[in-house]
Specification:
- The chain is α+β, with helices and mostly antiparallel strands.
- Strands 2, 3, 4, 5, 6, 7, 9 and 13 form an eight-stranded mixed sheet that branches. Strands 10-11-8-12 form a four-stranded antiparallel sheet, with helices on both faces. Strands 1-14 form a two-stranded antiparallel ribbon.
- α1 runs parallel beside α2, α2 crosses α3 and α6 packs antiparallel against α7.
- The chain starts with a strand and ends in a 6-residue tail after the last strand.
- It binds 4-diphosphocytidyl-2-C-methyl-D-erythritol 2-phosphate and adenosine-5'-diphosphate.
- It comes from Lentzea sokolovensis.
- It is an enzyme of class 2 (transferase).
- This is 4-diphosphocytidyl-2-C-methyl-D-erythritol kinase.
Length: about 325
C-alpha cells in the first residue's frame, strides 16, 4: 500500500487597517475594551504548512529578521494550540511552517495575527479537520485580539478586546496608500502611552461608530475620509513624533485623509480612487518621510487556501 503524504497547503491572509478605533478604559486583565471597524487590505502574507519530520518555522520577506522563529512565533503558537485542540502532540506536531511576509512587522497591521490565522486555516486543510470557521475563531481569540478578524477578513465590527467580530456588509472598494515607518512599535507600549496621556490630560477621542458605518455603506470615500479616527493615534504620535510629518505629507500629496493604522507606526491614507492612490504613493515615496510605500485596496477576503499541490506518493514501507 502507498503511504500518501498530504500535499503542502498555502494560505493567503490579509493585513488590516482600523477605520475606527475607540479605546475604553483598561480592564482588570490588562486589556482595553475596544469598538473598532477593521478592513482587510490587499497587502498579504502567505503561509505554507507541510507535514515534516523536522518541525519548525521559516520566515522570509518584509521584516523577516525581526520575526522569531521559535516557540513565540504566533503561527507556531497557532499550530500548537490547534494540535492540542484536536488531540495531537503539540510538542511534536510534525509540521513545518513557511511564512512569506509582505505585512510590516510590528506595524499596526496585524501581520503576526494574520500568520496565526493562516496557520489555523492551513492546518485545518492539511489535517482534514471538520472544523467550522466559528470554532477556529474561538481558538484564534486565545492567540490574540486581532486573530479572529484575520480569519473572516472583509470589513467587520470588532468589540470586546477586538476579538468579537460581526461582519459589516458592503460592496464598495476603497483605495489606500500605506507608509511603512523605519522601525516597528510595540502594541502594549502604545496602549500604555494612551493610558499615560489620559491620566495627564484629555487626548482626542473618536466619535460614534454608527457614522462610520453609514460612511462605509455610502461607498463615497470623501464621506468616509471625514469619519476615520483612531484613539491610539495620539499615543503612537507621542512615541514617534515623525509620524505627524508623514500624516501631513500624505494629505499634501492628495490623499483624502490619513490615519495611524492600529497601534502604528504604519500610516494609512484613503484616496479618491486607484489612480489617485498610485500618484499619492509616488509623491509620498519621494518625500523622504517613511521607509517604504505600498498601494492597497480593501475590503478583501480573510485567510484562504490558495494552492494545494497534487499528493506525492511516498515509496511503500517494506517490512522484512
Ligand atoms: C491595537 C490593535 C487594533 O486592532 O492592533 P495592532 O495595532 O496591534 O495591529 C489590536 O487591538 C491589538 O491586537 P493584538 O496585537 O492581537 O493584541 P494582543 O496580542 O492580544 O495584545 C497585546 C497587548 O496589547 C494590549 N491590548 C491589546 C488589545 C486590547 N483590546 N487592549 C489592549 O490593551 C495589551 O497590553 C496586550 O497585552
Ligand atoms: N508570524 C509573525 N509575524 C510577525 N511578527 C510576529 C510573528 N510572530 C510573532 N511576532 C512578534 O509579534 C510582534 C508584533 O508583530 P505584528 O503582529 O507584526 O504587529 P502589530 O501587533 O503591530 O500588528 C513582533 O514584534 C514580533 O516579534
Amino acid at each position: 500500500m502507498l503511504a500518501v503524504v498530504p500535499p503542502p497547503v498555502t494560505v493567503r491572509v490579509p493585513a488590516k487597517v482600523n477605520l475606527h478605533l475607540a479605546v475604553g478604559d483598561v480592564r482588570p486583565d490588562g486589556y482595553h475594551d475596544l469598538v473598532t471597524i477593521f478592513q482587510a487590505l490587499s497587502l498579504v502574507d502567505e503561509v505554507t504548512v507541510a507535514v515534516a519530520d523536522e518541525p519548525g518555522v521559516e520566515v522570509y520577506g518584509e521584516g523577516a529578521d525581526q520575526v522569531p522563529t521559535g516557540a513565540s512565533n504566533l503561527a507556531w503558537r497557532a499550530v500548537q494550540l490547534l494540535a492540542t485542540h484536536v488531540g495531537k502532540d503539540a510538542d511534536d506536531p510534525k509540521v513545518r511552517v513557511v511564512i512569506r511576509k509582505a505585512i510590516p512587522v510590528a506595524g499596526g497591521m496585524a501581520g503576526g495575527s494574520a500568520d496565526a490565522a493562516a496557520a489555523l486555516v492551513g492546518l485545518s486543510s492539511l489535517w482534514r479537520l471538520d472544523i467550522s470557521r466559528d470554532e477556529l475563531a474561538e481558538l484564534a481569540g486565545k492567540l490574540g485580539a486581532d486573530v479572529p478578524f484575520a480569519l473572516y477578513g472583509s470589513t467587520a465590527l470588532g468589540t470586546g478586546r477586538g476579538e468579537r467580530i460581526v461582519p459589516v456588509l458592503g460592496r464598495h472598494q476603497f483605495h489606500w496608500v500605506l507608509a511603512f515607518d523605519r522601525r516597528g512599535l510595540s502594541t502594549p507600549d502604545v496602549f500604555d502611552e494612551l493610558d499615560r496621556l489620559r491620566a495627564e490630560g484629555d487626548p482626542p477621542r473618536v466619535g460614534a461608530v454608527e457614522a462610520v458605518l453609514e460612511g462605509l455603506s455610502s461607498g463615497d470615500p470623501r464621506q468616509l475620509a471625514l469619519l476615520l479616527g483612531n484613539d491610539l493615534q495620539a499615543a503612537a504620535v507621542s512615541l514617534r513624533p515623525n509620524l505627524r510629518r508623514t500624516l501631513r505629507a500624505g494629505v499634501d500629496a492628495g490623499a483624502l485623509a490619513g490615519i495611524v493604522s492600529g497601534s502604528g507606526p504604519t500610516t494609512a491614507f484613503l484616496c479618491e480612487d486607484g489612480d489617485t492612490a498610485v500618484r499619492v504613493a509616488a509623491e509620498l515615496a519621494g518625500a523622504g518621510v517613511c521607509r517604504t510605500v505600498r498601494v492597497a485596496h480593501g475590503p478583501v477576503p480573510g485567510a484562504r487556501v490558495i494552492a494545494t499541490e497534487e499528493p506525492k506518493p511516498t515509496p511503500p514501507e517494506v517490512h522484512a
